[in-house]
Known about the structure:
The structure holds two protein chains of two kinds. Chain A is of the alpha+beta class. Chain A folds into two domains: 7-148, CATH 3.30.1330.10; 155-320, PurM-like C-terminal domain (Phosphoribosyl-aminoimidazole Synthetase, Chain A, domain 2), CATH 3.90.650.10. In chain A, α3 (67-81) packs parallel to α4 (101-118). The radius of gyration of chain A is 21 Å and the shape is globular. In chain A, the strands form three sheets. In chain A, strands 8-10-7-11-9-12-13 form a seven-stranded mixed β-sheet. Chain A has nine helices and 13 strands. Chain B is an alpha/beta fold. Chain B has two domains: 23-323, HypD, alpha/beta domain 2 (Rossmann fold, 3-Layer(aba) Sandwich), CATH 3.40.50.11740; 324-358, no CATH class. Chain B is built from 16 helices and eleven strands. The two termini of chain B are 29 Å apart. In chain B, 51% of the residues are buried. The chains are: A alpha+beta, B alpha/beta.
Amino acid sequence: MExxxxxxxxxxxxxxxxxxxxxxxxxxxxxxxxxxxxGAILESKGRIAFSTDSFVVSPYFxxxxxxxxxxxxxxxxxxxxxxxxxxxxxxxxxxxxxxKIEHLKKIVNSISETAKKCDVKIVTGDTKVxxxxxxxxxxxxxxxxxxxxxxxxxxxxxxxxxxVIVTGNVGDHGxxxxxxxxxxxLDTDLKSDCMPLIDLAKTIFKYGNNVKIMRDPTRGGLAxxxxxxxxxxxLSIELIEKDIPIAQNVLTACEILGIxxxxxxxxxxxVLVAAKEIAENLLNDIKNLPEGRNxxxxxxxxxxxxxxxxxxxxxxxxxxxxxxxxxxLPRIC
Amino acid sequence: MQLKINPxxxxxxxxxxxxxxxKTIKIMEVCGTHxxxxxxxxxxxxxxxxxxxxxxxxxxxxxxxxNRIDEVLALSQNPKVLIATFGDMFKVPGSRPGVNLASLKSxxxxxxxxxxxxxxxxxxxxxxxxxxxxxxxxxxxxxxGTAVAIKEAKERNIKNFSVFSMHKFVxxxxxxxxxxxxxxxxxxxxxxxxxxxLGIKGFKFLADEYKxxxxxxxxxxxxxxxxxxxxxxxxEKNTAIVENEYLRIVNLDGNKFAQKFIxxxxxxxxxxxxxxxxxxxxxxGIKDIYSDFDTVKRFDIKLNFEDKxxxxxxxxxxxxxxxxxxxxxxxxxxxxxxPIGPCMVSSEGACAAYYKYLRF
Lengths: 333, 360
């Protein structure tokens, strides 16, 4: 019979220990975790950034990633967007009874690989098991600490004339998950862009305060993030629609699914506002990284429309881009 | 006005339309997908003041009477019923403020969002303990899909599947609008998807009987701009014909296969439209031979045909009498987060289009 998670695994007893010792410790081997205390005791220097995120994506395996990879990238990327280099993570599972151990192994494996890639240590964690029907397979929470590398990213520093850059094709993650959930387009190469943004962020950090603000446009997509940049200010962002990079297969899928790629989540992209003097150089540096090859200047900050994001369409018309209202896609991260 | 224009060059067309100042022309775009495409592509922002685009009654969710929404919401409270619906219906409010399928789902009603009627059939097969009700919404475009599902259910003897048919024919509503003379319409952009099914001949009555220049258009901005250009040309030449701009999809006779499915399963019945009231023979009722799959009969629902007045002006917007911003609720208490009427809920609704794209 296939090995599955039972309530015993979350009881805190023998089964819990076996899960920790046989599956988790060997994967996340580090001195802080190996102590198996109630919490981790950590080295630090100066100011830190602290972030948390929960992951409930359905399905938990999707083209281009899985809930494990996502749970590391999510928190790591949030720390990077604060201007910090991620160092330590906590990792908590809530698993539904009946979950296949083989699936858990696959997820743990992908957590371990992604954490290694990001050079972060998983230093504390927890596992709970809930009764069959009280969860949806597996939920993960990660929290993370990063050491501040650069401070001061803020929307108050955005000025008229600044330039908006996105580091690659938008909308991939949301569309890939949505398709996987519905069993659509399985024979296509639609893939989530889920990845750690470490190299991109480090490149951007080099430009210091010439970069005004940056964000990874996850839920709500590019449109929602850009609205957050100018909302409540006297400035507007004017985007050139034809300059926004979107993969053809994403466009096609969006048309069929009736969703807008500008509102579809990304898990491996950065959108930033930078001073125009350095914009071209920064763009070239980003383009030199494999994950930044499709980067593009997509618009400018103006004071033509107060607090709005406005899109210039290819036929010469314009329209506003609001924040996402309601849920475009359920449970994508 | 530019004299030499290359009708294949969109830049020329944009410039021509932009500079056209000879006549005032009111064009109705019948289809909600056109309404959305027009707003999204910014076409409204490049039209001169004398060319007006009016949204027509072609958003299926918007024209669904509030009584039907109430009847669906009531049905969802039956613990044996699982409602399968297109996403657009999720947030349409009924008579009680704040109550919609989404809110009832949060409170435990069984409601699934699907992409086709066949998905609903599959849900029925996999969940024999539930009575699966598919909400049949839409015009001649979605009705064939529903018809296929009903036929298949009968062939495969699936007993726990039925359709709440709110499907409608486009033509009777357009005739009502034109006959009532409540609004002036000079020309029509005909719905591309419906034309795929009905063919060019499905809209000949607009030109032959009502003398309105009409162009069947696709949904790309270039299609719609070309349609507007062709309408201006017809008006300038004082002709009224149905032109087909959507050549890559639409032909003279349409999709006879799909038409046959509609004829096999549905028959014209009187139906109530939001804002337009009861229109004779405008609804698609399920024929008696398929009555086992008719939700209304199966659950003995007493359909209410009153066209209830609602506090929002969706009715007038559907008729093209007013623009969304002329409704006193628009963007004040009615927004996509808190929609009062279906024109704000539907992804094809005129209010949603304005709110989303044109509220500069």
